[in-house]
Amino acid sequence: LNKYLLSNLKEKWNPITHSDLAQRSDVVHSSTSGHQRGERRARHIERDFTEDLKKKRKEQTSEIDKMSGVLSGTNVYIGGYLEDTTDIEMKRILTAAGSRVLNAASGATHILTSQQLSGSKTHKILTGKSRIHVHVVKPEWVTDSISAGKRLSEHKYSVIRSASTGTL
């Protein structure tokens, strides 16, 4: 069979030299291999992609310019569940707004969470000897402050409630 196919390479019916596999295949480019190659037929797609990417970056840059500095001077620790957002997204927003995101609660000026803290954590915050008053606030404080263009009062967004004072 091999000798027969190899001796008839010029014939149109020979699958070795006259295959239509390329026309029947879907071309997939993998960016994980580290090897990228340009396809002539895809240049217009690449150009459109590049233009869209530039447009998106310009929009994001203007968003960041609006946010920068609103929360400067704050050290925020994300201390639990965040409703309607993710930790990663909130860290990106906080950093863009000028805040410093901490990996531990010590040194934090704000703890961000959507739910009540445990009793021991609340007790530690209320009775702690820290020189820094820690505000335990909801994520809405961040988004509303950015929307307002200034750092809003934490009172309205406080998570820790007290029967005698309303909030602490």
Notes on the protein architecture:
Strand 1, helix 4 and strand 2 form a beta-alpha-beta unit. The chain has a domain of 102 residues: Rossmann fold. The C terminus is likely disordered. By secondary structure, it is of the alpha/beta class. It is built from six helices and six strands, in the order αααβαββαβαββ. The protein has a four-stranded parallel β-sheet, covered by helices on one side.
What is the level 1 CATH name of the domain at 66-167? Alpha Beta
CATH architectural group of the domain at 66-167: 3-Layer(aba) Sandwich
CATH topology of the domain at 66-167: Rossmann fold
- Contiguous uncertain segments of 5+ residues: 163-168
- Mean of all residue-level pLDDT scores: 76
How much of the residues is beta strand, in percent? Answer: 5-15%
Using only C-alpha atoms, the radius of gyration works out to 29 Å
CATH superfamily caption of the domain at 66-167: BRCT domain
* SSE run: HHHEHEEHEHEE
Oligomerization category of the chains in this entry: single chain
- Count of β-strands: 6
Strand order of the largest sheet: 2-1-3-4
Distance between the termini: 87 Å
Largest sheet: 4 strands, parallel
Counted by DSSP, the helix tally is: 6
How does the overall form come out from the CA principal axes?
Answer: elongated
Q: What is the helix content? A: 25-40%
Secondary structure class reads: alpha/beta
Domain BRCT: 66-159
Protein name: BRCT domain-containing protein
Pfam families: BRCT
Region (Disordered): 24-45
